[in-house]
Amino acid sequence: MSAPMEEYSGSSPPRLSIVVPAYNEAQSLAELCDRISAMAAREGLDGAFEVIIVDDGSRDETRVLLARMAAERRYLRPIRLRRNSGKSLALTAGFRLARGERVVMIDADLQDQPEDIPVLLRKMGEGHDLVTGWRRSRQDTLRRRMVSLLFNGTVKRMTGLALHDFNCGLKAMSREVARHLCIYGHHHRYIPLHAHLAGFRVAEAPIQNTARKHGTSRYRTLRYQGIFDLLTILFNHKYGQNPMHFFGPLSAMIAIPSGLFMLWMTYEQMMFWLFGTGFQVQNRPMFAMALTALILSLIIFLTGFVCDFMLHHRIRDRMDEIVALSRDSQFSDEFREVGRSTGVAAMMPVESAETPLRRVTRADVA
Q1: Residue 125 near residue 46, CB atoms below 8 Å
Q2: What pTM was computed for the model?
Q3: Total number of domains constituting the chain
Q4: CATH number of the domain enclosing 187
C-alpha cells in the first residue's frame, strides 16, 4: 500500500473527482486506489481529490472491501447499488455526487491506466469540456478489436464526430458536463456524443491500454443493440423538443394516401347506391386495408410521440432520485439516502451497519 496521503478536509470542494463503476472487481480495487493516490501526489493534488467507487450490485467481496478501504482512505466515497443496474446508472450515481471541478471516469479493471489521467486533464486545459481516451494499442483479442473498429467507424459516420474510441473507459470532463449527462441503458458508450450534441467541446488524447489483470471481461461481441441506442440519442436530440416534427409527417405519409383511397371508395359506393354503377365497398378488401391504415396514422399521431417523449423526460427526472451514499461536509460517519425508485441503496460502514438510513431531499445532494 502506498504511503498515507493528506486527507481531504471537506472544507471546500475537491479539485478532482474520480468515478469508478465496479462490478465484481474486488481484486483490482486496492491497487487502483493506490495508483490513483500516487498519481494525485505527483500532480500536487494531496487533499484535493476524491474517489467515488460505485459498487454495481457486486456478488464478490467488493462491499466488505470498500467499507474497510473507506476507513483507511479518507478520499474514498463508496456507493452501493442494491442490484446490478448497469454501467450507465452506476456512472450517473457517481456523477451526481461528484464535487470536483473536474470529473474523471475510469473502469476498475486496470486496463486503462490511472497514470494517464493527467494526460486528459492537460488536454482539457486547452479549452475542451470533455476529453476521452484513445486506446491506440488495445490489448484485446482480434475479434474484439475488429468489432470495436466497426462500431467506432459506424458512429463516426452517422454523427460526424471525429473520434477513434467512443467507448474508452477513461474520460475527463468538467463538472458541468458530468451533471448534464443523462445516460441510461447502454448509453455510456456514447458519452462523448451526448456532450457534443449538448454543445460541449469534445476531444481525445492517446492513452495506454493493458490486458486485464484479474477476472474475466464482461464484453459482449453483439453490439447491434448499440445501433438502436444511437438512433434513440439522435432522435431525442433532433425531435426531443419538437416530436411532432417527426410523428406528424409520418402520420401524414400514411393518412393522405389512405384517406384519398377512402374518398374514392366512398364515391364508388355512392355511385352504386344512386345509379347502380360502381361497386360495393364491402366486397373490396382494399377498403378494409385503407381504413386500417387511416386508424394506424391516427394512433401514430396521438400516442407514438407522446410515449417516446414522456419516457425520455421521465428518465431524466429519475436521475435526480438515484439513491446514493455520501459523507457530509465534515466526512462524519453519517450517510444519507435519496429516493428508492431506482433500486440503489447506501452501503453502511461495517462498524455502523445497523444505523438506519434517512431520506433527504434532492437539494441535499445538489
Answers
A1: no
A2: 0.71
A3: 2
A4: 3.90.550.10
